[in-house]
Specification:
49% helix, elongated, 8 strands, 10% strand, 3-stranded antiparallel sheet, 401 residues
Length: 401
């Protein structure tokens, strides 16, 4: 914290603050009066705010300062000993990729190649300024995607993220202040979820092709992500305990581990899901994958979406929605049934209930139950299935969730 002080001999005020690890004292021509101290304090507050944000220009405030020239020289000397971003990016990428999925490696590599290196590749990491970064981000907002639409705020943040990580790491290694200091990610507008109603789900399941009815039944009533259901193998379907073990996902033609620790979870089967998987087992039970193509390979979600999902919605006169809305539908139906938010969060793979309330708050009517039984009642009421106690050739009540 800086201060405003007065010279004992002259009675003139001077600034006393720290910048880039150096103590800075700059003289003024102001006499030591309450009014002048207040004015100087306001200037000092602006200086300290700009130092925090990384936008402070020493020479602008103190153009004739010898210390300003010294600090500028020091920064220039430090910059002269830093590598080009292109060279540092090669080192950084090799060090980081060991902890990333292959799909994420490809995403970062393409981001570097398409956006970051063409702009900053030939610049030394030590001379890249905050102004350079803000100008680059502003330029990204004017870029259009292959569909002719501007890049989304989320996409821009994802492009900037590797750049921030590299500059922060370079600043630590080469002892300079990261120009990214004080730059926050762009605020992403909250996207309203568009889940299906129970009646819409019924229409979809009654109309969809018979060979995909089980697939969409499981999607609608388990909350599995696209990669999780496409990567589901029979070894992770436990009919005895009526559970689906989510352990992996099929992403871009590759079987990968789950998205995070929370995604590594156990999903309870409702009666409807249990019956759908039993029916599916009679079709693909001899294969590795629960839902697969005729040659036994995992489904191509793009192919299924374009050939099955969107044509079905058009046929039913329903608004076009991404298949991911089936996951939102599961969450909102559980909430509508009155299930406990903690139970729902576990089913969805959320570490806490925070996201549940943030995303689905308007769908929370009355949370009382915590074991899935309320959801069973909702399904029985709308789909006309019997409870496990009244069915034959199904799990006993003791084997239920």
């Amino acid at each position: 914290m800086g201060s405003i002080r007065a010279r004992p001999k002259t009675g003139k005020l001077f600034f006393d603050f720290r910048y880039q690890g150096e103590r800075c004292r700059e003289q003024t021509a102001l006499d030591d009066t309450p009014t002048n101290r207040r004015k100087a304090r306001q200037v000092l507050e602006r200086i300290e705010a700009e130092i925090t944000l990384g936008t402070f220009d020493y020479a602008r405030y103190f153009p004739n300062s010898a210390q300003a020239a010294q600090l500028a020289q020091k920064a220039q000397e430090a910059a002269g000993h830093t590598p080009r971003l292109q060279d540092f990016a090669d080192i950084w990428f090799e060090e980081m990729k060991v902890q990333w999925r292959k799909t994420h490696q490809e995403t970062v590599y393409l981001t570097l190649k398409k956006y970051i290196l063409p702009e900053f590749g030939d610049k030394e990491v030590g001379v890249i300024t905050k102004a350079h970064l803000l100008e680059f981000r502003s330029t990204l907002a004017k870029v259009t995607s292959r569909k002719g639409k501007p890049l989304s705020t989320t996409r821009i943040n994802h492009i900037m993220l590797p750049l921030r990580m590299m500059l922060n790491e370079a600043a630590n290694r080469y002892d300079f202040i990261s120009p990214y200091h004080g730059i926050k990610s762009l605020k992403v507008p909250r996207s309203d979820v568009a889940p299906f109603t129970v009646d819409e789900v019924k229409r979809i399941l009654q109309t969809v092709r018979a060979d995909f009815r089980a697939y969409y039944t499981v999607r609608f009533f388990t909350g599995l992500r696209t990669g999780e259901i496409d990567g589901l193998q029979w070894q992770y379907v436990d009919f005895d305990r009526r559970q689906i073990l989510v352990r992996q996902a099929w992403v871009k033609g590759e079987l990968v581990s789950t998205k995070n620790d929370g995604s590594f979870r156990t999903v309870e089967m409702s009666q409807l899901v249990h019956d759908a998987l039993q029916e599916q087992h009679r079709v693909t039970g001899g294969a590795t994958w629960v839902f697969c193509s005729r040659d036994g390979t995992p489904l191509s979600h793009n192919n299924v979406t374009q050939r099955i999902w969107y044509p079905l919605l058009r046929h039913l006169g329903l608004a076009k929605r991404r298949p991911y809305q089936t996951r939102h539908t599961a969450a909102t139906l559980w909430l509508a049934a009155g299930e406990s938010p903690e139970w729902i969060a576990r089913q969805m793979g959320h570490a806490t209930t925070e996201m549940l309330f943030r995303v689905y708050s308007r769908f929370v009517p009355n949370l009382t139950r915590q074991d899935g039984s309320a959801f069973e009642r909702l399904l029985r009421a709308h789909f006309g299935i019997n409870s496990p106690e009244t069915r034959t050739n199904t799990a006993s009540p003791e084997e239920g969730p």
